[in-house]
Write a structure and sequence with these properties.
- The structure holds 2 protein chains of 2 kinds.
- By secondary structure, chain A is mostly beta strands.
- Chain A has no helices and 11 strands.
- In chain A, strands 2, 4, 5, 6, 9, 10 and 11 form a 7-stranded mixed beta sheet that branches. Chain A has a 4-stranded antiparallel beta sheet with strand order 1-3-8-7, with no helix packed on it.
- Helices cover 0% and strands 51% of the residues of chain B.
- Chain B is mainly beta.
- In chain B, strand 8 (86-93) and strand 9 form a beta hairpin.
- Chain B has no helices and 10 strands.
- Chain B starts with 9 loop residues before the first strand and ends with a strand.
- Classes of the chains: A mainly beta, B mainly beta.
- The A-B interface holds A 1, 4, 6, 32, 34, 41-46, 49, 59-61, 91, 93, 95, 97, 100-106, 108 and B 1-8, 34, 36, 41-46, 49, 89, 98-100, 102-105.
Chain lengths: 112, 112
């Protein structure tokens, strides 16, 4: 099946700093990618839909100025958590759709 | 909006027994359903899917049943193995759209 990668797999940062997470579709082109957040023992919550060459569509309650999404190419989308706070600590998962949706391995963000 | 679980129900089964994981979906307009397996610290992994024009679909050791009347989906795993231990999520989708709504998830524990 198709492969979606994320980098880094885990990151620890200090409160107030920004962190960038990359999502790549390795063997297919994805015009649309998705970013999810998952808190411990909870389900996946869609944060935003990332469209190549245009602005991302954010879900209700997700701050677009805090979670910056850039879909620069058909194989790369980035999520930047700006001015991170401890409550932003979570597991961030991206996905990309080919004939079906494939999920990346996730990025564990810990803000201290 | 997205379905977010506040707690994770757990199903414990003896190795070799059959497992049945249930899911109630929310949107009567959904016509595509998917089961995902998520191991600790990893992204969701596709298991099996079903379209609304079917009520049963079988894969290798897994069967998905769909009851549209009561908006219920189940995943049956035959001869459950220790490697099946994970959290299982159902997701619903309207074909032609990219938005998936995830269920709350069920943790499957396989007892040796």
């Amino acid at each position: 099946g198709a492969v979606v990668s994320q980098h880094p797999s885990w990151v620890i940062c200090k409160s107030g700093t920004s962190v960038k997470i990359e999502c790549r579709s390795l063997d297919f082109q994805a015009t649309t990618m998705f970013w999810y957040r998952q808190f411990p023992k909870q389900s996946l919550m869609l944060m935003a839909t990332s469209n190549e060459g245009s602005k991302a569509t954010y879900e209700q309650g997700v701050e677009k100025d805090k979670f910056l999404i850039n879909h620069a190419s058909l194989t790369l989308s980035t999520l930047t958590v700006t001015s991170a706070h401890p409550e932003d600590s979570s597991f961030y998962i991206c996905s990309a759709a080919d004939r079906q949706k494939y999920f990346g391995p996730g990025t564990r963000l810990t803000v201290t | 909006g997205e379905s977010v679980g506040l707690h994770l129900p757990t199903l414990s089964v003896q190795e070799g027994d059959n497992s049945i994981i249930n899911c109630a979906y929310s949107n009567s307009a959904s016509d595509y359903f998917i089961w995902y397996k998520q191991e600790s610290g990893k992204g969701p992994q596709f298991i099996i899917d079903i379209r609304s024009n079917m009520d049963k679909r079988q894969g290798q050791r897994v069967t998905v049943l769909l009851n549209k009347t009561v908006k219920h989906l189940s995943l049956q795993i035959a001869a459950t193995q220790p490697g099946d231990s994970a959290v299982y999520f159902c997701a619903e989708n309207i074909l032609g759209t990219y938005k998936y709504i995830f269920g709350t998830g069920t943790r499957l524990k396989v007892l040796a």
